[in-house]
Amino acid sequence: MSRPCNVVVLISGSGSNLQALIDSLADGTSPAAIRAVISNRAEAYGLQRARNAGIATEVLDHKGFADRERFDAELIRRIDAFAPDLVILAGFMRILSPGFVRHYHGRLLNIHPSLLPKYKGLHTHQRALEGGDAEHGCSVHFVTEELDGGPLVVQAAIPVESEDTPETLAARVHAQEHLIYPLAMRWFAEGRLRLGEHGAMLDGQALPATGYPFRTKEIRDA
Ligand code: GRF
């Protein structure tokens, strides 16, 4: 296998997506290697998950900085110490400055709990229910300066049931997140996924504007 793909993961909370990324590397067939997990919150449980997996951790508390630009500059310095090929936002609850986003252009991924471009921002499960949507889901996308607006890589859709609450919906969407984020990381690490001039490309082909339409049964073949 060629050189590993160095990955740095940014978190703020529970880190269940981080766990899915870690678990996806267990069989040793992916060229991705998670070099560090960085959190802006010292109490984030995801830090423990990283330590359990023997991954380096760092805490960078945004409250110690006068403004977003200075925090982001220090965050870049910490991330770049691990020479990342890919930076993964996994529940990192900070809006990133344009300078940060530009610095990692084409190597910064995020996961969002909705079928983007629907429901950018917060409370996505509640909004999908209020909207009477038949389907809801999650999206992995390249990060650009537009919040939750970068080119889509992969989406997983689930049916909304009449008895769903925001909590039941969130749980089923989360389960899909844990499938599609490792898939996107693997594609990137294998050199199959990249950000082209007009959007995300997989195996040299432009992906649909809504990203690769993931279906659970396909995970084995993708
Ligand atoms: C996920 O719902 C993700 O879509 C959003 O933040 C949440 C992180 O959850 N960006 P976890 O910390 O990975 O459990």
From TrEMBL:
It catalyses: N(1)-(5-phospho-beta-D-ribosyl)glycinamide + (6R)-10-formyltetrahydrofolate = N(2)-formyl-N(1)-(5-phospho-beta-D-ribosyl)glycinamide + (6S)-5,6,7,8-tetrahydrofolate + H(+). One of its GO terms (molecular function) is phosphoribosylglycinamide formyltransferase activity. (6R)-10-formyltetrahydrofolate binds at R68, M93, R94, I95, L96, N110. Residues 6-184 form the Formyl transferase N-terminal domain. One of its GO terms (cellular component) is cytosol. Pathway: Purine metabolism; IMP biosynthesis via de novo pathway; N(2)-formyl-N(1)-(5-phospho-D-ribosyl)glycinamide from N(1)-(5-phospho-D-ribosyl)glycinamide (10-formyl THF route): step 1/1. CDD domains: FMT_core_GART (cd08645). The keyword Transferase applies. The record marks D148 as: Raises pKa of active site His. Its EC number is 2.1.2.2. InterPro entries: Formyl_transf_N, Formyl_transf_N_sf, GART, GART_AS. GO terms for biological process: 'de novo' IMP biosynthetic process. Keywords: Purine biosynthesis, Transferase. N(1)-(5-phospho-beta-D-ribosyl)glycinamide binds at G15, S16, N17. Coiled coil: none annotated. The active site is at H112 (proton donor). Catalyzes the transfer of a formyl group from 10-formyltetrahydrofolate to 5-phospho-ribosyl-glycinamide (GAR), producing 5-phospho-ribosyl-N-formylglycinamide (FGAR) and tetrahydrofolate. NCBIfam families: PurN. Belongs to the GART family. This is Phosphoribosylglycinamide formyltransferase. The gene is purN.
